[in-house]
């Protein structure tokens, strides 16, 4: 049974539908500030919150996530704008900023699927993602990725088929205090593609915009 705390979504009927469709989920939907704070005392696996609520309770949420070792926190933003994450070492390990248009059923399903993938890993053809070990293997050989390269892959995977700008990737992977040139990201993407070998086409360049991943379309380009 996984316990998920979700706040800031208006369609509560949809959330109850999500919960009832999966008997392995216990979804907490606080109706008041008191309910929200009380829920923190329960063991949680996931939190899904919009940035407005996180900003209001940032210190308390940061402390909660420090204490509960298994929790994953998905922060929903319309744009990846500068924010002060105090725990840079937990970014893309416990904290997952997500660029989305709206909080809806599709988003909840995507987060739940990604959280499950992080726990169980992912196998596509002979490419294996191991999030616990933070490794990517091809044909049983672990690729020599740097921590930043793995985080780039992870963040692109989290935003499957969503175009991310260089600036957004830097904010999510390097943190919000990066002072270098945004073109730095091109060098890291080039290195990541080279190490991925035949899977380099997973990371697509969207000219004039940024980068995008399509892991689900892996079979189509391997057939050529």
Would you kindly provide a written description of the structure presented here, covering whatever features stand out?
- This protein has 224 residues and is of the alpha/beta class.
- 39% of the residues lie in helices and 21% in strands.
- It has nine helices and eleven strands.
- It has helices at residues 12-21, 33-39, 51-56, 58-67, 105-120, 147-158, 166-173, 184-196, 218-222; strands spanning 2-6, 25-28, 46-50, 72-77, 95-99, 122-124, 127-130, 135-138, 141-142, 203-206, 210-213.
- The strands form three sheets. It has a five-stranded parallel beta sheet. It has a four-stranded antiparallel beta sheet with strand order 6-7-8-9. The chain has a two-stranded antiparallel sheet with strand order 10-11.
- A hairpin with a 3-residue loop joins strand 10 and strand 11.
- Helix 6 crosses helix 8.
- The longest helix has 16 residues, at 105-120.
- The protein is globular.
- It starts with a strand and ends with a helix.
- Residues 219-224 have low confidence and may be disordered.
């Amino acid at each position: 049974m996984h316990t998920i705390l979700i706040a800031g979504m208006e369609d509560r009927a949809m959330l109850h539908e999500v919960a009832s469709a999966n008997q392995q989920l216990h979804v907490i939907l606080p109706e008041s500030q008191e309910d929200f704070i009380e829920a923190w005392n329960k063991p949680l696996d996931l939190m899904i919150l919009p940035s407005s609520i996180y900003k209001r309770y940032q210190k308390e949420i940061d402390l909660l996530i420090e204490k509960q070792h298994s929790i994953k926190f998905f922060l929903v933003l319309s744009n990846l704008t500068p924010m002060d994450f105090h725990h840079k070492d937990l970014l893309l390990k416990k904290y997952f900023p997500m660029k989305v248009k709206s909080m809806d059923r599709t988003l909840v399903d995507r987060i739940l699927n990604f959280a499950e993938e992080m726990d169980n890993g992912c196998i596509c053809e002979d490419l294996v993602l191991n999030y616990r070990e933070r490794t990517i293997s091809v044909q049983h050989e672990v690729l020599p990725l740097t921590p930043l390269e793995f985080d780039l892959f992870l963040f692109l995977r989290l935003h499957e088929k969503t175009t991310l700008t260089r600036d957004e990737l830097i904010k999510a992977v390097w943190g919000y205090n990066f002072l270098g040139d945004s073109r730095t990201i091109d060098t890291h993407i080039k290195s990541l593609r080279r190490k991925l070998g035949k899977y380099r086409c997973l990371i697509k360049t969207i000219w004039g915009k940024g980068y995008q991943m399509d892991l689900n379309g892996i079979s189509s380009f391997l057939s050529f």
